Amino acid sequence: MKILSLMKYELLKIFRNKGFLFALIIVPFLLSYLGSNLFPENMLSDYKIAVYNEDNSFLGKFGFLFLSQFFKWKDAVQITSHAELIDAIKSNEYDSILIVPKGFMNDLKNYKDTKLILVPNPNDLSSSVAIYTVVKALFNELSGIPEISAGSTTQFLLKGGISVDKNRNPPDIEIQIPNINDGSLTNIKNASLDFQDMLAPSTILVLVLIFSMGGIGISVSQTKENGLLDIYRANGLKIWEFSIYKLLTYVLLGLISSIITFYVFKYFGSNFAGKEIYMMILIILNVLMFATFGLLIASLSKTTRTTTFLLAIFIGTMVLFGDVLISIPKDSMWYKWSYILPIKYSIDSLRKVALLNYNLSLVVKDIYVILLFTVVSFIVSYISLSYVEKK
């Protein structure tokens, strides 16, 4: 077939470039390694947190006050009943909800295994991840709770007064997934809110933007500019065939970089809660969408220089303002504007599946947007390329 022959020619041309081949393999590896090992875990700003204390004993109330003061959450809201908890989940206004179970402080005091429950905000996972990471790190550092050293006043002062009992195990942080429709909570096995797990979808998308969207955009522009497209047309190649073989080529490259990234993150300890098949489906859909977007930009540009400029603008805008690498506060105007960018739907769906073990039916709206953007981009690029060819 023409398409397969041309695709083979395109791949051979690409892989002759040793620099590109090196980048295709090494860049995903480096980004995944750095994200897995060097991402800081000591960042916490002011977040809107709700705390529901089910432990109404005297010790439990004391523990609640201790937690509130210790973590210095300025905007923490206390929930006093289960009905308020359901309303808080439905409102989806808190960055996270922390639940202190009944008997928590007493079990902790008696060296029993304990747990705290963290309810993330599915629509603001960046904030939830920050809260989870700091809470977990602080409890691990404390190895339990501070206590007054026993003995006389002299011994108390000599031993430092307040000490930490290293024999007391820190509580587990259990993640429960909220249903904002009915306010219920679900304990999903392997749900994860680690920073490196959240960074994996971001890294995957950045590489897709570079290799698929950027790659096809520059390739198509060069093919138009050097007259090769005219030669193809003179030999009977149709515009749709040209578009398909370019898309298949750079979709393949995007998939290679994405799959390398995915498995490198797993190798370095990332815990993807979602099913691997769901992740692969979303990766394929996103690679196809951004490759089609790159084709669209190239079809509308007259020169390779213009295409390169537009690609830099669009890729930079999506990375900076699409909630990919930088968390955008919900109260800012940029948060609302981010939903005009296709990458916002990509990152939301990938994070929900990877971190919260969502199935595809729970991110179906994001998938619809991705498919719609893909179809529209392909149709417009086809019309644009056909118009240029006729002209």
TrEMBL record:
Domain ABC-2 type transporter transmembrane, residue spans: 18-382
One CC-aspect GO term: plasma membrane
Main location per the UniProt record: membrane
Keywords, in A-Z order: Cell membrane, Membrane, Transmembrane, Transmembrane helix
Spans traversing the lipid bilayer: 20-39, 199-221, 242-265, 277-297, 309-328, 367-388
GO molecular function terms attached to this record: ABC-type transporter activity
Membrane topology listed for this record: Multi-pass membrane protein
Protein localization: Cell membrane
Domain of life: Bacteria
Pfam families: ABC2_membrane_3
Protein name: ABC-2 type transport system permease protein
Organism: Marinitoga hydrogenitolerans (strain DSM 16785 / JCM 12826 / AT1271)
